[in-house]
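Box 4.2: Ligand-aware structure prediction
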Amino acid sequence: MKVLKFGGTSVGSSSSIKEIKHIIENQNDKILVVLSAMSGVTNELVQINNKLKENNTDIQIHIDYLRKRHLTVINELFSPKQNTEHIVEYVEEILEKIESFKKEYLTKERESIVSTLGETLSTFIFSEYLKASEVSNKLLDASFFMLVENDENPNLKVIHTLFEREVERMEDSNIYITQGYIRIDRNNKISTLDRGGSDYTATILGAALDATEVQIWTDIDGFHNNDPRFVDNTRPIEYLTYDEAAELAYFGAKILHPKTVMPIRKKGIPLYLKNTFKPESNGTLIFNDSKYFGLKSISAKDGITAIKIKSNKMLMAYGFLLKIFEIFEKYKTPIDMITTSEVAISLTIDSTKKLDKIVKELKAYGEIEVETNQSIICLVGQSIIEDKGSNKIFELLNEIPVRMISYGGSENNISLLVSEENKVTALQALHKKLFPKHINV
Ligand code: ASP
Ligand code: MG
């Protein structure tokens, strides 16, 4: 079995849905297809939730958008001779369900149900489209088997058992289709993975079902060696290790949800990142093999806050770091980057929800400086520092104020902290210095 996941833009229009059909038909294996909601749809559903939470029932504009998005695709996908009445009815039923929540108290579960309706719709429409094109398939309701009690550590065995039970109830098929993003939580209630979590659904299922491979289809041909939104002449990377991919996904490369590689890494299941709109291009293969050394890619993550704690108490003291970290632990705020000197610690966080409380407690330990709107520039590869030419990274210091530098936590990563306004210049300068061969490609 292979797992193929298609993202929001891949299911976002009738023409892209037709592309997916071709891709699926070319697989010579049993497949499980995981779909996202059509691009933009989950945002709309989240807006509905936000309004309902504030007792604002003025959601017509969103309902209209959702109706139009889905009915347009249905109209374009099916020929006039094909019967689409039941599909249109299904869309209307879903919209009515959302409307019905206007009158009732919005529970956590109802909120989750609303946010996952985009996936409910996209999978239903796609399954019906395949059937109408005589491609037999079975649509599976992910809420029957995606029991993910602990988001960090899904119980793959339970998911496997529940999936098998579901599949045994129906006729055998070569193509199964299911929804990304949705999960059942420890209280047996419908819930969601984080935003963008359909990637994670795919690898959880891939690992649970011991898939031979997982393919994630998006609108870009794999990880690039720099951020194509800000830098010209980037190129796709053919191979990455799980660790490298995890670092890149975490530090800003938007293509993958940060948790995606976690479930498949242990089992060594290969992960292919492919472009729905250019299926012939290689994309990126993520695997264990680290046959390629050196620097592979640069990415950046915005919205970072740097905190500096300066204290004479730290001088030759032990246990100081522990006390500092305990404060972050208490407020469940992860630290991304850290550097220390004898009298100061600098660290970064990307969630500022508890910043005020954290700073208040930190003040007991020294002088505190906070700088918001920072970016982490992350250089990823194998043994980067041994790579010839990597010393050029430090030439950046002549051009841009770099607030922190961190290397050594892993051999895969050098992180630099710059202010957000210098991010693009830093990405471009590093690209020129570190990937000179590709400048004129
Ligand atoms: N539809 C969900 C979102 O937009 C999940 C996903 O697309 O991965 O966040
Ligand atoms: Mg995504």
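In the box above, the bound molecule is aspartic acid. The CA atoms of residues 145 and 167 lie 10 Å apart.
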